[in-house]
Amino acid sequence: MIADRYADFLPLFAKLDGLLDEGDAVVAIEGGSASGKTTLAGILKEVYDCNVFHMDDFFLRPAQRTPVRLAEVGGNIDRERFCEEVLQPLKKKETVCYRPFDCRTQTLGEPIPVPPKKLTVVEGVYSLHPAFDVYYDLAVFLDIDVEGQKARILKRNEPSLAKRFFEEWIPMENRYFSEMQIKRRCSEIFCIF
């Protein structure tokens, strides 16, 4: 018997198995806040013993948050650092050495070396920014309705932080999804309830 948490993603497992039969693969999991991206990445780590990188580790540092940068569609992450520290080494099958952003201190942490594995998963909003297209073998989108998203955010966050999601981050995400046609560019789409 297959655990319920895996059952919904069987088509994805089949697609990944096919890719991995051909060689290494890098997969991006995109979707709105609270859509289950981190949970799915965790499931894939359990099943495939893969590396997982989180876009939350690549938020802009305070000095980078200029009005011009934040006005860019998808400008809320450090694309340049993510590409340099993660995607380029992955492409060369080298050890990744990245410095995760610490939201509490608003600084970069100590470097973390990550040797390559057969499967690498990148999860998070902005993971499918067009600047990264050439690095991915598969693009996955987790779609969640507004009410489901709101309920999940309220359940897992203090009211002041939930307010920031609703008034700041989700509007930025939605603009990015729309203007960059993110969902349309994904070969696998799962509706999350």
In brief, what are we looking at here?
The protein is an alpha/beta fold and about 190 residues long.
| Number of structurally distinct domains | 1
The name CATH uses for the topology is Rossmann fold
Quickly give the structural class. Answer: alpha/beta
Order of helices and strands: HHEHEHHEEEEEEHHE
**CATH architectural label:** 3-Layer(aba) Sandwich
**Fraction in helix:** 40-55%
Q: Sheet with the most strands?
A: 5 strands, parallel
CATH superfamily: P-loop containing nucleotide triphosphate hydrolases
CATH class reads: Alpha Beta
Give the strand content: 15-25%
Distance between the termini: 22 Å
Weakly predicted, low-confidence segments: none
Number of strands: 9
| Shape verdict | globular
Strand order of the largest sheet: 2-7-1-8-9
Helices and strands in order, then pairings?
Blueprint: H1 4-7, H2 10-22, E1 25-31, H3 37-48, E2 51-54, H4 67-71, H5 79-91, E3 96-98, E4 101-102, E5 107-108, E6 112-114, E7 119-123, E8 138-144, H6 146-156, H7 159-179, E9 188-192
Parallel strand pairs: 1-7, 1-8, 2-7, 8-9
Antiparallel strand pairs: 3-6, 4-5
Helix pairs in contact: 6-7
Report on this structure:
- This protein has helices at residues 4-7, 10-22, 37-48, 67-71, 79-91, 146-156, 159-179, and strands at 25-31, 51-54, 96-98, 101-102, 107-108, 112-114, 119-123, 138-144, 188-192.
- With 193 residues, it is of the alpha/beta class.
- It has one domain: 3-Layer(aba) Sandwich (Rossmann fold).
- The strands form 3 sheets. It has a 5-stranded parallel sheet. The protein has a two-stranded antiparallel ribbon with strand order 3-6. It has a two-stranded antiparallel ribbon with strand order 4-5.
- Strand 4 and strand 5 form a beta hairpin.
- Helix 6 (146-156) runs antiparallel to helix 7 (159-179).
